[in-house]
């Protein structure tokens, strides 16, 4: 069953998110950004619901920016509502409103994510501020343990999972430009517990798309092996292998071993997590802060300049997210 949002607003760009994150003073959850790069708010075509800790219906996702119906009044956006309620001290500065809905008693409220711990809450509206346009809320009620948990448990009221359709739409959008590669010579399959242990060991958080990919392929050799960079001025680049998360292959060590080695020798900044390489020993790395993908060119290292300058020289942006990266592999151009 196809579901989605209608009456969506003008599409967002990564630059928009950089500006929004700067205003809010926090990095946004990667899964939320991926969703909003696809849909900048809108009303649901079917009533969506989540019923993990309590039932909450979602009928509207607020746009992050822009709102034709309200003539782009900032209050009617994620950014505007969040900042307005912060100014009134009705919410903590870590709270970000992103949707409108009702709880099982049909009380109207806002759905918000705690940017600090990732948990999602329902804020029931119980009144209005004496000044401004802020609402007064009851004590927030837990809806999901994380933004990933929220989207993974979202259903249409007839019981069909909503997130599967979002993934279908992502596949449709990326099919014309590239495909997800198949991997061979991969290591032993992973469990979700393996990935959790990996994150704990390195004290990192990897995006949902990367977790799902590694649950399918624990490292290996990709086919096709060429990636078309998101920078229109750059040519495609080749990817020789993805490193496994657990249990090295015959040819490659694990991400953990490679990352710790590069970090300890100050050959790569600690906010970059190498997960793949080309045939020349250059790495593909996840930026752990903004979750973008970078091509890290070891062969451009210059012993005559500082470590910081080398980090700058060697790092090239190539994709907005792991999800984009893994869905844009192409056949080698002859």
Would you summarize the structure shown here?
Helix content is 28%, strand content 26%. It is α+β, with helices and mostly antiparallel strands.
Would you write up a description of this structure?
The chain is α+β, with helices and mostly antiparallel strands. It has 2 domains: 5-167, SMI1/KNR4-like; 177-330, SMI1/KNR4-like (3-Layer(aba) Sandwich), CATH 3.40.1580. Helices cover 28% and strands 26% of the residues. It is built from 10 helices and 19 strands. It has helices at 14-24, 30-38, 78-87, 147-152, 163-175, 192-202, 208-216, 255-264, 307-314, 322-326; strands spanning 5-6, 42-51, 55-61, 95-103, 108-114, 120-128, 135-137, 141-144, 155-156, 182-184, 221-223, 226-227, 237-238, 241-242, 272-277, 283-287, 293-296, 315-319, 329-330. Strands 1, 2, 3, 4, 5, 6, 7, 8 and 9 form a 9-stranded antiparallel β-sheet that branches. A 5-stranded antiparallel β-sheet has the order 14-15-16-17-18. Strand 4 (95-103) and strand 5 (108-114) form a beta hairpin. It starts with a strand and ends with a strand.
